[in-house]
Amino acid sequence: MNKPHLSFTQVVNMNVGFLGIQFSFGLQQANMSPIYQMLGADGKDLPYLWLAGPITGLLVQPLIGAMSDRTTHRWGRRTPYFLIGALLCSLGLLAMPFSPALWFAAGLLWILDAANNVTMEPYRAYVSDRLRPEQHASGFLTQASFTGLAQTLAYLTPSLLVFFGMNKDALGANGIPVVTTLAFVIGALLSFTTVWWSIRKVPELPLPAEEVARLRALPHGFVPALVEIWAALREMPPTMRRLWWMALCQWYGMMCYWIYIVPTLAATMFGTDDPKSSGFRDAALLNGQVGGFYNAVAFVAAFAMVPFTKRLGAKWVHAFALACAAAGMWALPGITDKAWLFLPMVGIGLAWGSIMGNPYVLLAGSIPPERAGVYMGIFNMFIVIPMLIQAVTLPLFYDSLLGGRPENVIRLAGVLLAVAAVCVLRVRPAQS
């Protein structure tokens, strides 16, 4: 298919939908551990309660990817999945802060993450579908920038609401702060409207008649999708296989950070381990501020990385960014002054901007276009399997090896990101 060269404005418009998708993920990263603990969860059990994201991603993304590769709907191959997933995500965000009990919040997170994954996977394939190979770096790093912007807003929204006059200690009937509830309502509005904007401004290209005929001749449904996933796994390109070890260390480490950053800040900055204390709520707000900062760094860095990625190669830029984050995470638990807390966030922001872009640049250049959906879905398995491993294994040594302290989990994350930086240097891009 002859793809038109898209302008910078078109590349931006096609990625606006990522603002809503990633605002939702940002709300989860910043708020789910505090919500769980406010509803009665123990610290060592937090990884189990975060299982929804990895498991739904493992099951949903490859399946949706394989199905969207064979979809011939009049709205497009990917668009029906965008819209359905975004609508369900909005409903899940509206309900989450009103959870009456821990089991309800945990169950609702499964629905919310499934909906996010229905939207997320086709979006990756849509960027690969729509852009010429020479524009892949611009497309995926612009997507990474919107990730940074969205998560900046998601992390900062509660603090901004407090700044504009809301009471940080005002609680709902379930003990969840009112500012958190309003942040989820804002996320629900963004989830659908931004996706709708993208597909209106930069619709999918119509498939050639012969391609439509070929796709319609293929078997459709759940079982053929599973068969296609298995075939794609067996025929996985070598570059994609080599990305696994980087992904294992990278995502294990990031999950450690997201789950334990609020308890860490509560202990190091406010001297408390009590999730019902004012200091713990202050730690959640502080996490919103520093998390917003590192996502703002990611927003700027992802755009700034485009010329470096084109010139030096995605793997070198990604390795440097991961090394910066490793140093930042190792230093973070030793900081007790709020002002200095923003320094390690620069490194974490660089890595986050790169994580959401550069691995996909490496991937997109190595996969056949007709299988973009299924391989983007399988690549998500490289994200969620490490998350599952983290959720299952970390509680086993949280007390024995890490002393039952969240600060030591953050240090472990730093070590793992350093190892990921070494692993990505061993990846050989397909074009080299």
TrEMBL record:
Q: Does the keyword Oxidoreductase apply?
A: no
Locations listed in the record: Membrane
Membrane topology of this protein: Multi-pass membrane protein
* InterPro entries referenced in this protein's UniProt entry, alphabetically: MFS, MFS_trans_sf
The UniProt record lists the keyword S-adenosyl-L-methionine: no
Q: Which UniProt keywords apply?
A: Membrane, Transmembrane, Transmembrane helix, Transport
Membrane-crossing ranges are: 48-67, 79-112, 176-197, 245-270, 290-309, 316-333, 339-362, 374-397, 409-427
Tell me which SUPFAM superfamilies the record gives: MFS general substrate transporter
* Protein's name according to its UniProt entry: Maltose/moltooligosaccharide transporter
